[in-house]
């Protein structure tokens, strides 16, 4: 069976399952179902990350466009939000070839509707229907796409037009370049905003940086770099630069939802949309409206659209991985930052550093002032959807949930829109959900201390495994 499937953001799977005919077929299905809608401009902008497989897959996407009578515009290697911005400028649709943070033996396609909006879950269903109707015709020979070298420059200008040249004066920032497609751009933008940007850790091979589930070697590398005392912060992104990573002067990595919270406050948001995996400090911060959704940027985008319909004027969203979505134009010190309702890494990096600069605080002190609590997460691998689904179904039953959680606390409230998120006594939460990208059961916890959150996750995974294996006794203990 093919590994290709739609997850929380686009299509992903093994490179061997995507190269050639499959990437042609999915691109053709997208163009047939979405990209050539009545009135749509018959153009598709194509971008890619720095994986070895991405250039060839991008060429296949261009061939699919040519076969559909659609002009392909080659934007080269650039951040996903830069490609979305170019699609908005042109009124064109877009395809980004990227596997984001997953290992190099995998890759994917992210699709954008005409005008640069991410596709919806309904659009995914339409693409799959068109894919089934198309059959398995082999792809035609590659067709060169028209080049567009200025898309990344326009994305750069968007940030610099909104953030002043002296914004970060006096700050020294390590830019961990690795294999991020934004590695040179990020250093350039920070320097243009007044920081001393020092590139480090450039890699010629792909590094799968996950901004939410940090690899031990990445954590150790960041701590070693920051132990020198030379830097006020370290910044980087995942492979396609739609998710940020920021560490403070002591090498502590800031949570993605904390970056989003700081950015939303800096922008003066009156409506914030977040998935259920984001920390509960968001509700305590005083935003006029907070809306929680299922995990995945399509759901966050739908929530932002709802907030705008209900009268919000400064609308944003963010995910626990740090990707920030701006749903409306916003003024920053008299400068206008245009809306870009897709995940972006550049904005939360700049806004977080700018917030610390404006308050005269270190990043550590800025975060401490939020009193955002601590979170932890982990997963059980190789858990079939049927097994995780059965457990989640049992957790939706109040009596089972109460007995299952008895060793760790008393349930106070429950959110069932994506898995089962349970508020416990003592200002704690535990959340179980099936991964949208892999056969995994994930557990998230929130508590006042890091150790308590980690202990809660460890207990949750052990209790879940025992319950799925049918060996759990009273209170979820094996």
From TrEMBL:
SUPFAM superfamilies: Phosphoglucomutase, C-terminal domain, Phosphoglucomutase, first 3 domains
Occurrences of domain Alpha-D-phosphohexomutase alpha/beta/alpha (ranges): 4-131, 154-251, 256-369
GO biological process, one term: carbohydrate metabolic process
A Pfam family assignment: PGM_PMM_II
Gene3D superfamilies in UniProt: Alpha-D-Glucose-1,6-Bisphosphate, subunit A, domain 3, Alpha-D-phosphohexomutase, C-terminal domain
Residues covered by the Alpha-D-phosphohexomutase C-terminal domain: 414-456
A GO molecular-function annotation: phosphomannomutase activity
Names of the cofactor(s): Mg(2+)
Keywords: Isomerase, Magnesium, Metal-binding, Phosphoprotein
Family statement drawn from the similarity comment of this UniProt entry: Belongs to the phosphohexose mutase family.
Protein name: Phosphomannomutase
């Amino acid at each position: 069976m093919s590994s290709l499937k739609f997850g929380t953001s686009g299509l992903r799977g093994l490179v061997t399952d995507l190269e050639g005919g499959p990437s042609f077929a999915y691109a053709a299905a997208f163009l047939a179902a979405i990209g050539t809608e009545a009135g749509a401009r018959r153009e598709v902008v194509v971008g890619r990350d720095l994986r070895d497989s991405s250039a060839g897959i991008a060429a296949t996407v261009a061939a699919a466009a040519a076969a559909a009578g659609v002009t392909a515009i080659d934007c080269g290697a650039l951040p996903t939000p830069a490609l979305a911005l170019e699609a908005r400028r042109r009124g064109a649709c877009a395809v980004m070839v990227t596997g984001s943070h997953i290992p190099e033996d995998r890759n994917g396609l992210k699709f954008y509707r005409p005008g640069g909006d991410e596709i919806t879950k309904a659009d995914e269903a339409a693409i799959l229907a068109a894919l089934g109707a198309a059959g398995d015709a082999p792809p035609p020979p590659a067709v060169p796409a028209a080049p567009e070298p200025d898309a990344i420059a326009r994305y750069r200008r968007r940030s610099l037009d909104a953030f002043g040249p002296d914004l970060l004066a006096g700050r020294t920032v390590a830019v961990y370049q690795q294999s991020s497609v934004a590695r040179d751009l990020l250093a350039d933008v920070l320097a243009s905003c007044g920081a001393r940007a020092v590139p480090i850790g450039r890699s010629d091979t792909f590094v799968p940086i996950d901004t939410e589930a940090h690899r031990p070697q990445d954590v150790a590398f960041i701590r070693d770099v920051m132990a020198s005392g030379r830097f006020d912060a370290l910044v980087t992104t995942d492979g396609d630069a739609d998710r940020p990573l920021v560490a403070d002067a002591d090498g502590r990595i800031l949570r993605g939802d904390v970056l989003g919270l700081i950015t939303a406050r800096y922008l003066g948001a009156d409506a914030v949309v977040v998935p259920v995996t984001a920390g509960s400090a968001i509700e305590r911060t005083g935003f006029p409206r907070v809306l929680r959704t299922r995990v995945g940027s399509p759901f966050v985008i739908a929530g932002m659209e709802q907030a705008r319909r209900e009268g919000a004027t400064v609308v944003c969203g963010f995910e626990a991985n740090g990707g920030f979505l701006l749903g409306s134009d916003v003024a920053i010190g008299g400068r206008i930052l245009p809306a870009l309702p897709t995940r972006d890494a550049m904005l939360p990096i700049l806004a977080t550093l700018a917030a610390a600069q404006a308050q005269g605080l270190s990043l550590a002190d800025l975060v401490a002032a939020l009193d955002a609590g601590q979170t932890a997460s982990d997963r059980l691998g190789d858990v079939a959807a049927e097994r995780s689904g059965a457990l989640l179904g049992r957790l939706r039953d109040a009596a089972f949930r109460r007995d299952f959680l008895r060793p760790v606390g008393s349930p106070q409230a429950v959110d069932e829109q994506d898995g089962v998120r349970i508020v416990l006594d003592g200002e704690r939460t535990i959340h179980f959900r099936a991964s949208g990208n892999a056969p995994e059961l994930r557990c998230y916890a929130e508590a006042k201390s890091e150790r308590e959150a980690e202990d809660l996750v460890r207990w949750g995974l052990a209790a879940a495994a025992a319950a799925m294996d049918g060996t759990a006794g009273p209170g979820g203990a094996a």
